[in-house]
Amino acid sequence: MAQEYKLKGVTSLDLKPGDKQEVEIEGIEGAKVLLLNAGACFNGKTGDVEDAPALDALPVFKAVERDGAVYITGDEASIKSGHRRPSKFKCKATGGDKIVVVGGGSGSLGTVEGLRENGYKGPITVITNEGYLPIDRPKLSKALMTDLQKLQWRDEEFFKTGDVEFVQDEVTGVNFGSKTVATKAGGKFAYTKLVLATGGTPRVLPLQGFKVLGNIFTLRNVGDAKKINEAIGEKGKKIVIIGSSFIGMELAVATSNGNDVTVVGMEKVPLERILGEKVGGAIQKLVESKGVKFYMSAGVEKAEPSTSNPSTVGSVHLKDGTKLDADLVILGVGVVPATEYLKDNSVVELQQDGSLKVDEYFSVVGLKDVYAIGDIASFPYHGPAGDGKYVRIEHWNVAQKAGRIVAGHITNPARADIQSQVFAPIFWSALGAQMRYAGNTQANGYDDVVVQGSFDEGKWVAYYTKGETVVAMASMGKDPAMAQFAQLLPLGKLPSKTELQNGLDILIETDCLRLASSGMPPVIYIAFCVVWRFTQLTVIGLLTVIVYRIGFHPLRRVPGPKLAAISNIWQAKYVRDGKVRQLVRDVHEKYGPVVRVGPDEVWVSSPEGFKAIYGASNGFEKSDFYIATALNRPEGIDWHLNLHWPDTLDLLSEFDTKRYRLQRRLIGPVYASSNVKKFEPAVEEVLERAIAELKKLEREGSELDLKEWMHILAVECLGAAVLSWSPNYIQQRSDGGTSGQSYLGWKRKSVFGLFPLITKISFWSKGISRWWANAWGVTFTTPKGFKPFFTPVYQKSSKRVTAALALAQKRADQQQKQPQKPSKKAPKSKPAEKKDLLEDLIQLHLARPDEFTETYLRRLAVTNFGAGHETLCSTLTAAIAMIASHEHVQRHVADEAWLSRSHRGTKETTATAPYAYTQAAIKEAQRLWPVIGMVLPRRVPYSHTINIGGYDIPGGTTVGCAPLVLHLDEGVFGPQADTYEPGRWLPSTSPAHRPATPDEQEEQIRRLREMERCNLIWGGGGRTCPGRFLAEMIIRKVVTALVGEFEVAITSGLPIDAANEERMSCYFMAMMSGVKVRFRSRRDKGLTDLGAEEEEAEEGRAVSGKTR
């Protein structure tokens, strides 16, 4: 008996389109009802099925809102059931009409249930060769399910209640004249109406081995699925799936757990023909995350037998020579219409693909009382941009819908609402996540795809458009969007391409229209109007700014990407993705030496521009980009949004030029070449330990990551020279992930630097900082057990500074109490002081405490590591990689290393030993692989306007040169500037190999000076690296030690082709990554004929190798 029940936790029936909510019912234990706002499959009033893929109708209950709660009325049994079988299916067949349905799939089920529900009382016979009742066929490929109890939609008893006869036999022919169907078992069945729904037959490959070898499968029925499961057995199998459309991809996911699965496809990416390259590529990445491997754009040549069992497949060979080992092979290369029984029938005309041409009611053209549905039917499609073009759609949903259309036409031919014009094709696929698809692109294709959402987050909708018309959509993680699309498509209410590009969300847009017509309260309406007006004004303001920046800005005539005139967002996307190397080259190649890359930013690649920006006399200050690198929080901000910084010696981010110059003068003597020379023994001791460890690794046959080991040496050498300390990285054979984590930090700084206003606000609002970082995907999790070396560096340097200052104060106090008297006795020797850079800085502070303050001292002690470890690592990696990848260069550097050793014990020191070629090789690597990946940004003084390349650049504009492009200027660096040629840094002989004339010597000197001056290896203008001489000493020591002791062999990562460069992320800080090496002890430790080698290089330019 029906009664009223209250729904738990529900206060309103206000649901958005596509929303659904499962709720419990008070008073009925375990019972739940589903609240939903949908109409794609069910009648909202009766709960009856209106469209596939639904089969069971929904029970419908009266619902009311009362006193802040929702109540439904119904009987307990109906509420608990959750669904109901078609109420009109039961009948006892009578009458002379006979309907025969050939095939036992989705289309047959839709036809049979549609006939009974529409009131047909005559006999129905279904002839199928599958051996079971209609099943949920998609579960075969999605899960390889074989349990008929779970697969069959209806049991035998259900069909008996509707007096539907199932005959398990195979149809061999149809006599359309006598209206009879013949079967393989000799049966003959008369009909008045015939529905052909025989589905598809999987394609096989007409190639060597595929028709004769065992363990090569197709998938169409339960028997096929059982055979595949039996072949897989206990898993651990090598499975090759040929075909990258939906069947192949679903099977790849279904079999990936515990097996080695490989997909071979002819397209560039899976599903490219239907979903396009962009969406197909995203799905490939998703499936790859399951461990599946792909061979795309591939052709299959043959299948070879197994060596252990020649009757079964053992491998698949591709046309490019690739051999794929296989325990079993599954073919997912499509299906052909299963119409073999009609091929010799003169009455019927099969289309070129074997299908039957039908009209809007799926009635076969040219035949009376005969229908064709499902995979064998080519029907006129009247969806968006369809224009009635004939298509054949192989969707389970389409077959069932076509069966219902046929049932409606048979029972009531006069009905107009059964035409396929209202039909929205949909399907779904299990591809690691559920993908939904609605619409159709087969009729006239598509020419663009509009994507909303994020592939990486797994929540996206892709709309396929033809001109301005949206013809189809695919989605993941956004199921309501597909349901809404399926409702709007037959109504002709789909949005346009432009609306979608402008960000329209079909769910939100429809929801707004619904709210507008619902009679909202006045307060809500006023709030809505205020928000709407604010939105309008914001849009108008943004449009005004955009128009000004594009059409009236002083930089409007400077060439560059259109988006650059509007915002830095386009540039930030490249930076975030680590594509800076490609970006700086591409924009200059496309737009020339002067390019506008932001609303107020210009990049320059000419020597003329370099001199204008970085010339010592110009005094251009650093741009606001460097705010993102600041070590301190500003002391304040004025109404011009200018920040005011404390005086703490932050050399990289110091904006006060006067203060910076004073700081450089103070520390200059400490970092002078003559002073850092005394740290060489400490660096040499580090290298002795490193060489010993590398020899152990050599004996172990280890392949090493070059970047990590250069970072190990960088930190170890800095630790020895600056702090007389070691992080034990050499002994641990690892830098503990510090290089990777610090590089990710540069990713964040590089993105934030492009948005100075956000960065300024972030100093006072951590929430804004986190929000912006999350929006750009530049938040990082510290690995478990990660130990940064900065912690011990800070602790040790702080402890030493504190102790030194305390000792100095103690001595000063003692001298005040006991003034020193003249003494004839020899002074007592002082305790030995550490000969490292920190000791020099301490002495500088003690000598000039008012200028080189304690704050300066403590900051610079740590800055040596902060500013040095990454730049040293980058330079060392590039130098070793480039030297090792050019045999001629490596031989020369090794010779110089051994020659330098011959000077030990003589009056000639290592500083004067012949390192000219080695230094040239290092400079050349720095030129082609500079530490800076972006530009070194400066700001044109507000009182200036400069002219570069014929373009006036006003004050306040950010300008800069990118080393990656500037260093390739042939006017400065000579011909073939994009090749690695250390000789360009050396004075050369005359063409005839005679001594150079004075004029030639003068020209050589001029050329070398121009190269030295016009590069950004150590910074630009007056803001060069303070620790240059220390860095150069360490780099020279490391390179000569390693190359002199070992033959360095590159095993992977070089040469730098497009694929390798794509994997090398590059930000403001740039590092070569992904290079693997082996260090092999040198056997030949004698010297080669340097003169002969130089002559060979001069004549043949043997040392080359494009870097791009």
If you had to describe this structure to a student in words, what would you say it looks like?
It is a single chain. With 1108 residues, this protein is α+β, with helices and mostly antiparallel strands. The protein has a five-stranded parallel sheet with strand order 8-7-6-12-24. Helix 14 packs antiparallel against helix 22, helix 26 (837-847) packs antiparallel against helix 27 and helix 29 crosses helix 30 (916-928). The model is unreliable at 511-519, 826-832, 905-913 and 1086-1108 (pLDDT under 50). Its cofactor is FAD. Belongs to the FAD-dependent oxidoreductase family.
Q: In angstroms, what separates the terminal alpha carbons?
A: 81 Å
The gross shape turns out to be: elongated
Largest sheet: 5 strands, parallel
Runs in which pLDDT lies below 50 for 5 or more consecutive residues are: 511-519, 826-832, 905-913, 1086-1108
Beta-strand segment tally = 45
Provide the spatial order of strands within the biggest beta sheet.
8-7-6-12-24
Mean pLDDT: 86
> Class by helix and strand content?
alpha+beta
Strand percentage, roughly? 15-25%
The rounded Rg comes to 39 Å
InterPro entries: Cyt_P450 (IPR001128), Cyt_P450_CS (IPR017972), Cyt_P450_sf (IPR036396), FAD-oxidoreductase/Apoptosis (IPR050446), FAD/NAD-bd_sf (IPR036188), FAD/NAD-binding_dom (IPR023753), FAD/NAD-linked_Rdtase_dimer_sf (IPR016156), Reductase_C (IPR028202)
Protein name: Cytochrome P450
GO molecular function: heme binding; iron ion binding; monooxygenase activity; oxidoreductase activity, acting on NAD(P)H; oxidoreductase activity, acting on paired donors, with incorporation or reduction of molecular oxygen
Organism: Podospora australis
